[in-house]
Design a protein that fits this description.
Layout: H1 2-35, H2 43-52, H3 56-85, H4 98-112, H5 121-140, H6 148-172, H7 178-185, H8 193-212, H9 214-219, H10 224-229, H11 234-256, H12 262-274, H13 278-302, H14 311-333
Organism: Paenibacillus tundrae
Keywords: Cell membrane, Membrane, Transmembrane, Transmembrane helix, Transport
Main location: membrane
Length: 334
């Protein structure tokens, strides 16, 4: 008994150390993101601009790094919820149409109504994400309850169809599609305080809702028959969690566009480092997701200045090798 207690304490200590390490890294990357870009600035310049609440750092770099943090939290937590609810380790926001639906509406606005104020693009994108997700839920609906496998398959099919339409539009309007391409690759270019103000309520509310439902995430990992015997209202809980995932993924995609691998890889890495208990892994997932997107955005700005590499490309380059590693490891286990 004493041995088990010491293991438990050591486990808690390890988790605290991991979380503290990631939080410190977030602070470091946050500061570096303010200092470095197309033109590096000194710390004194940063302090002066914060005091004056004006200047490039305060008006452009600060909102951008805040958006990166919020997008990382939203996308990674949404991915963790979807992988559990759909019982699919490869599930991500793409499965419920959030990325494709928002992307299609954004491309339509950019190509067909180019004079639309940029701040309205995230609003239209979020609406497109919601419509696409509702369509997927309706197509997957069965009176006796949604099949998670059916929902995932319908989501993949609808998302693929929407992506095909997006590509057709870009080919048709090739001469004026550069801005749409940047959006679809996943970018935080030219984000301002209005974008951060639009995103943060969704991120905070979604994270709070996810933490309030966290015990159900642990329960949903059990076998279906066990869930019924426990009296858990599986359908209601799954619907609530899917709505939370939709809100998080749609709001994130509306600001950053398509960020590959964030919602797919981060939950796996979080479980590997902290264990399967969502009470611990979910906050760590949020922090790790924020760190990845912030670091990806910083690297995209400093690798080949003044040219920028979209953060979506950086996250793909980081996430793809780890994804291959996961597949190989699963193959060895079998």
């Amino acid at each position: 008994m004493r041995h088990m207690k010491s293991l438990s304490l050591r486990s808690k200590g390890s988790y605290s150390l991991l979380m503290a390490t990631v939080l410190v890294m977030i602070v470091v990357v946050f500061i570096l993101s303010l200092r470095f870009g197309a033109t590096p600035v000194t710390f004194s310049e940063i302090v002066n601009q914060f005091r004056a609440q004006a200047g490039t750092i305060y008006e452009l770099r600060l909102p951008r790094v805040l958006c990166a943090l919020l997008v990382g939290v939203s996308a990674s937590v949404a991915g963790a919820i979807l992988q559990t609810v759909l019982r699919n380790p490869l599930a991500s926001p793409d499965v419920i149409g959030a990325t494709a639906g928002g992307g299609l509406v954004t491309v339509l606005i950019i190509l067909l109504a180019p004079l639309t104020p940029a701040i309205w693009l995230p609003v239209y994108s979020m609406a497109g994400s919601a419509v696409a997700s509702i369509l997927i839920f309706l197509l997957a609906y069965r009176r006796q309850g949604n099949s998670m496998i059916r929902l995932a398959l319908v989501g993949i099919a609808v998302s693929a169809a929407l992506q095909a339409i997006i590509k057709m539009l870009i080919v048709k309007y090739a001469m004026s599609s550069s801005q749409a391409l940047i959006w679809l690759k996943g970018s935080l270019y030219a984000r301002n305080l209005q974008h951060a103000e639009l995103l943060w309520p969704w991120t905070v509310a979604g994270l709070i809702a996810a933490m309030l439902l966290v015990r159900y995430l642990n329960v949903l990992k059990l076998d279906e028959s066990v869930l019924v015997s426990l009296g858990t209202r599986v359908r209601t809980v799954r619907t609530l969690l899917l709505l939370v995932a939709l809100a998080l993924s749609a709001s994130a995609a509306s600001i950053s566009g398509n960020l590959s691998f964030v919602g797919l890889i981060i939950p796996h890495l979080s479980h590997k480092l902290t264990g399967e208990n969502f009470i611990r892994s979910l906050p760590f997932t949020a922090a790790l997701g924020a760190l990845l997107v912030m670091l990806g955005d910083l690297l995209g700005r400093v690798i080949v200045p003044p040219m920028e590499i979209p953060v979506g490309i950086i996250t793909s380059l980081i996430g793809a090798p780890y994804f291959v590693y996961l597949i190989i490891k699963q193959g060895h286990k079998k």
